[in-house]
What we know:
By secondary structure, this protein is an alpha+beta fold. The protein has 3 domains: 3-113, no CATH class; 134-230, DNA polymerase, domain 1 (Orthogonal Bundle), CATH 1.10.150; 247-411, hpI Integrase, Chain A, CATH 1.10.443. 38% of the residues lie in helices and 7% in strands. The chain has 13 helices and 6 strands. The chain has helices spanning 87-106, 134-144, 152-168, 182-196, 200-219, 247-259, 263-275, 281-284, 315-323, 351-362, 374-385, 390-397, 402-411; strands at residues 13-15, 42-48, 59-65, 72-77, 295-298, 309-312. The strands form 2 sheets. A 4-stranded antiparallel β-sheet has the order 1-2-3-4, with helices on one face. It is globular and about 100 Å long. The N and C termini lie far apart (112 Å).
Amino acid sequence: MPAGKFKSRHPxxxxxxxxxxxxxxxxxxxxxxxxxxxxxxxxxxxIYSAKMDLSKTWYLxxxxxxxxxxxxxxxxxxKRINEYATVSERLSFAEAYREKLTQLLLSGYRxxxxxxxxxxDEKNENLSPDKLSLQDAIQSFYxxxxxxxxxxxxxxxxxxxxxxxxxxxxxxxxxLLKDVTSEHCQALLDYIQKSRNIEGKTYNHYRxxxxxxxxxxxxxxxxxxxxxxxxxxxxxxxxxxxxPLTLDQIRRxxxxxxxxxxxxxxxxxxxxxxxxxxxxxxxxxxxxGDLDDTSAxxxxxxxxxxxxxxxxxxxxxxxxxxxNGIMGYPKDHYIxxxxxxxxxxxxxxxxxxxxxxxxxxxxxxxxxxxxxxxxKHSGAIHMHLNGATVVEIMHLAGHSNPTxxxxxxxxxxxxxxxxxxxxxxxx
Length: 427
């Protein structure tokens, strides 16, 4: 078909197909367009050519699938394409851009709404084995690595690790991924421990996260070994920060929160105390639709063990839910949000921790002694003292087996094996 008879609904909107780019620089259209294999995550790729007018602005219109929500992400790329002076150069740039995007997606890279498209800029050649810095490696892993069972906490930890690495490299020379040594990993982890005053368990979490990043690039054959393996894990002292609160202390915190007009924090306290739900993803991502009149459903994707469970609600908690009108909100709203009421977006990771520290300080209690689990631990102790069995507490707390629950209660001081000493006869 002659080019002059080629009709388009939108003549200024030209779809770019790698195999058919010559449609726009030749006079004939092929009888059959070659089929292009579907690229995971790429929904559409178009070039707006202003009817091939070089005096006007061209741009690439790209729609990708958000790796976290599944929703479309639309981006327009204007700057680079308009630096070229001829039609063929601009079309060649579009072809090269799509080729680089395709390679990234086929290698496992995924985009989210927070991902920068700078990784596709021709001036950025860091995403190659020889030029990839450790910082860029972690950024790429954070943005694009999709793991089906990766929790929100793990994703956040990768983000924190990236931020801490940027701090660390202010006083240390940035290093390429292929040149990282065990000594460098040790220095980074020691910096994290010292600057954030973290304990052995959290240190080991960061160590495992850093190790998983190196494993990812080993599988891509970009590096040959994992330098984190030579860094020793820290020993973990049990229960050194898991200090529960007394009932009087909890009531004092409740009184302070209500005085501050923070009824949502009281609801947060009640959930932790009466259900033993974990204050991380299990509670932060709880939605209105997960509740009924007498129970709550912890979704498997939010649970630590990736196993969903139904939890019965104690009467005081049922009453507070009714008083706050929670069931009147849409089912897809998160119960806890930064707006102190159910909202489509959940509260941030540290939202309640910061408020808890504030109220502990106002109550004259040591915020460093009581972590975010203090309400859960207090509830577990009082359930045990009020006759709940180890199996019942195991189910509520989401433990794997009764032995774990026994150790848990023992470390909290709820179980003591020394009562028989009081009954020993005098000789």
